[in-house]
Each structure stands twice: as structure tokens, then as C-alpha cells.
Amino acid sequence: MRAWQLPAGSTGFDKLYQDTLPDLTPGPGEVLIAPRAWSINYRDFAVAAGKYFGGALTEPAVPLSDGAGEVLAVGEGVTDFAPGDRVQGSFFLDWADGPQVMGRALGDGKAPGMLAEQVVLPAQGVVKVADSLSWAEAACMPCAGVTAWNALFEGGRPIGKGSRVLVLGSGGVSLIALQLAKAAGAEVIATSSSDEKLARVLAMGAAHGVNYKAVPDWGAHVAREFGGAHKVVEVGGVGTLQQSMNALASEGEIALIGVLADGDPPHPRQLMMMGGSIRGIFVGSVAMAKKLNKFVDAHQIKPPIGATFGFDEAPAAYAHAWGPDSFGKTVIVRD
Fold first, then answer.
1. pLDDT tens profile 237-257
2. Which residue range(s) make up the domain with 224?
3. Phi and psi for 29 in degrees, rounded to 5?
4. CATH no. for residue 10?
5. Taking 80 as the threshold, does the pLDDT of residue 167 lie above it?
6. Alpha-helix residue ranges (DSSP H) falling in the chain
């Protein structure tokens, strides 16, 4: 089978190389999958650069957490899946439901990666895809989709009809969150540094757009002009956290996801004055993925794919996803 790999000690996605590896066979409790499409997340760049939580890769590794494909075979004892089923991987292979379980994570350099023509996963880390999605669309769900779902609907302050949701930027998590929130009856406010991208986000259903270069105090602006956000999908990190706190409505929640922007963390006392909270988000469980896919089917949500590349064009896909023209999800499809 063909597979893309990163070498031991990789320092960036420019080190990607394609290799031919032996075909795989599922063992007991395992599922053999032929991925048909994949998508790229910010985390995949950290893995390639050797800056993910586990540090530099210690051996060659197949990258990417997000892929969707067809079951080819199942191992002994597997009853929930059969050849021909349309499935996706779960970002965390061992977090079925309930409280967060930090364990094996797809594409981290130690667990299996998805960017290959075959992958074997434990059955508990496999999820049937939403019936209404194409392969490319389904490949956007395991990390970005589940993260957005967790941010909006899990925890103690789920959104609903009449909620105001603030999404930052035009990446995959933010735009899928926009779609989910709008389907739930929420009012969505979006930020971007690009008026052209804001126009596209407004066309997707955001009620308001704020160019954060033109409005440097965008957090206070959101609170003043729109009444504040009951939920902030915070993909920036500490560099934008103060602005997100400024944007909160009374008893609002910041779903803290990202590490994109560096900076000094704000003082938390501001949260005391408004009953606000910050909840850490690290993707989600298999149960969340199933709820997300059911919701996607019910509301006919199509995740935003900004660009599509062939399997042999994986390095170009990475470059596009890293560049300024990226919008929504960048997807790789099987030739």
C-alpha cells in the first residue's frame, strides 16, 4: 500500500515522503479501513515540526488524525462493523464516553496515522460516518467537527435557540461551529482579518462579521454592539483570551481550544464580575462523534471545504492549509 510518512526527527511538513508499506491485516478486536479522504488540522503541523506534546518523532510515522473510508475486513470478535461500512476514525482511540480520557491519539507519531491507503484501528476507535456526507466531507469530522460539537453542546453551558456564539477566524473548527450553532438556532458573530473571508462567512449564515484589524478592540466591540457572546469558540489561545473575556455576555463560557496566538494570559478576576467561565476542549469522545453525525444528518450540514488535493499532492495540501488562502477545511482525496 502507498502511505505518506514523516521521518524521525521531522522538523516540518516539507519532510513528508511517500513510501510503499506492506498491506495490513486486522487482529482480534480490530478493523481494517481503506481511507478515501483525509483532512488537515493545525495540530498536524505541530506533529510534523516535532512540537506536539510528545516532542520530536522518534521513528517514521504516518501523519493525520482525520480520515474517512470503507471497512475492508474486521478481526475476530468485531460485531459492530462489517466490510463495506462507511467509517471514520476517532481522534482519541480510547475515549468512548464520559469524562475525558487522555490516551492514544491518531496521527501523533505513536498511534496509527490515517494518511495511507490502509489503516488498522481498534474497533472502539471507529465511528460510522454521517450518511448525508461525501467521503471528503466526512473526513472533516473527526477532529474539527467533534471539537466544535464539544465546544458548543457539551459541558455545563450548552448553546441553544437564542444563544449568541462568537467564532474566531475562518478555520475548520470555527466554520463548522458556525454551521452547528446556526442549526441550533443561535446567532453567530465571526471575526477575521480579511473582508473577503468575512463576506464568505456571512454568506454561510453568520449574523455579524468583525474585521479584527479594523476593530482592534473586537472583544469589547462584540459586547457593546451585539450584547456579548454566551459562547466563545476560542481557537486563538492566550494571545486572544483577554479579548474573548471582554466579549463574554453575563454567565458566558469560553471554550478554550487553540494555541494559535502567543501572549500573556489575562487575569481571571474579570470572570468573577460576570459569572463567566473557561472550559478546556481537547477534541472529544466517540459518543460525541456519534451525536455530531446524527445532528449533521438531521440538519443536512455540509462542512466547508476550501480546497481539495489528490493523494499524490499531499505536500501541496499541507502548504495550502498553512498559507493565507486557506478557508475552512483542506481535504485530500484518494485518486
1. 888 999 999 999 999 999 999
2. 155-280
3. 75, 10
4. 3.90.180.10
5. yes
6. 42-48, 135-138, 146-153, 172-183, 195-203, 218-226, 238-247, 269-272, 286-299, 314-322
- Return all residues near 71 (Cβ < 8 A) that are at least 6 apart: 31, 32, 33, 81, 82, 83, 84, 85, 87
**For residue 178, is it within any domain?**
yes
Q: Which of 164, 186, 149, 329 is nearest to 232 (CA)?
A: 164
223 in a structural domain: yes
The count of structural domains within the chain is 2
Q: How far apart are alpha carbons 257 and 150 in whole angstroms?
A: 10
Residues 277-307 pLDDT 10s: 999 999 999 999 999 999 999 999 999 999 9
CA distance 7 to 293: 34
HSE, CB side, 13 Å, CA atoms: give it for residue 307.
Answer: 18
Number of residues that make up the chain: 335
Give the list of residues 6+ apart from residue 306 with CB closer than 8 angstroms, or none.
325, 326, 327, 328, 329, 330
Q: Rounded to two decimals, what is the model's pTM?
A: 0.96
Distance of CA 91 to the CA centre of its chain: 9
